[in-house]
Amino acid sequence: MSTDLSAVMRVADRPPVVMVEGHGSWLQDEDGKTYLDFVQGWAVNCLGHSPDIVAETIAFQARRLINCSPAYYNAEMARLARLLADASGLAQVFFCNSGAEANEGAIKLARKWGVRHRGGAYHIITMDHGFHGRTLATMAASGKPAWEALFEPKVSGFTKVPLGDLDAVKRAITPLTVAVMLEPIQGEAGVYPAGDDFLRGLQALTRDEGLLLILDEIQTGIGRTGRLFGFEHAGVAPDILTLGKGIGGGVPLAALVAAEPVCCFEFGDQGGTFNGSPLMAAIGSAVVETVSRPEFLAAVNANGEYLMAKLRALSSRLGHGEVRGRGLLVALELTGKDAGKVARTAMDRGLLINAPRPDTLRFMPALNVTRDEIDQMLVLLEGVLRVT
Ligand SMILES: *Cc1c(COP(=O)(O)O)cnc(C)c1O
Prior knowledge:
Helix content is 38%, strand content 18%. It has twelve helices and 17 strands.
């Protein structure tokens, strides 16, 4: 390794490796070592590294219009907003640059709606172990135990309940409650599904109580679970939906999507210098059009089933635990092994996987990963599990 890293702020425990190039499921470091990538920029590169469609869209749009200021409409913003509104069954879209910013917008929109329709109610019920981002409000909304003592004073107004416990949600509702917010599958927590029945129960409950249902689909959206949106599996309809990660195919793009009656921002309430730029929006449209094709989603489902079946077989062969997930968001629970150590050994052997918990490995390959790449991953993983 020859790159000078001393000016890079140390915010993560990164291995001493510098990445320089990536294509499809393969990533390469500056020493020429290649890695089979089942992390994919944290489930961001839904079409793999540097896919042609993204590279070509960037080149084309960059020569046409990169940014015309958020003070003006642009054609690409309108096109992607229409695509997302139609696909989700919701009405309007605000574009952002990160998932946390989309969730921050969702919280603001719910609070505004609470002022308009619920006498100023602003409390949002969120889930233990949930993850919504790293801004002050989204950290407060998250249910990560390690964050409880950080960055005081907290943004107030979040009540946590256990995932899947509808009675706990009911008990947590007060006159100050405005919304319930959760991920259809908790990704960072270690791939824990909320459960379709719980989501349907929440939809009925929030409707009966006159509350908003906010779904954070930053990780589960854009084809990750085998449907364009995770909520489609449960047949529910959120009032507010947030998207990020895969929607940009690797570039910083996220979206806040809301049903018509919820769209109550007044001019000046929400905005941002880079929000809805034609360059990012053009990329988003190319990605969403690609991922939403029925044959593309069918392949995500088939490969997800295949990956999970193979992981279950591997797990029972080696005496490990549960395999959880949907589509290509999958976790394997380990027995008697440190997942972080397994992930480090895997990296040494040219495989990138993530350990969201000390006993859990997470797999989030490109959505267009091939069977052959899944097979190669399984061979590498089995080797690693046998020696770690
Ligand atoms: C990654 C993630 C976020 C945060 O997105 P950033 O782009 O990192 O700000 C929020 N919610 C969920 C469910 C996520 O997976």
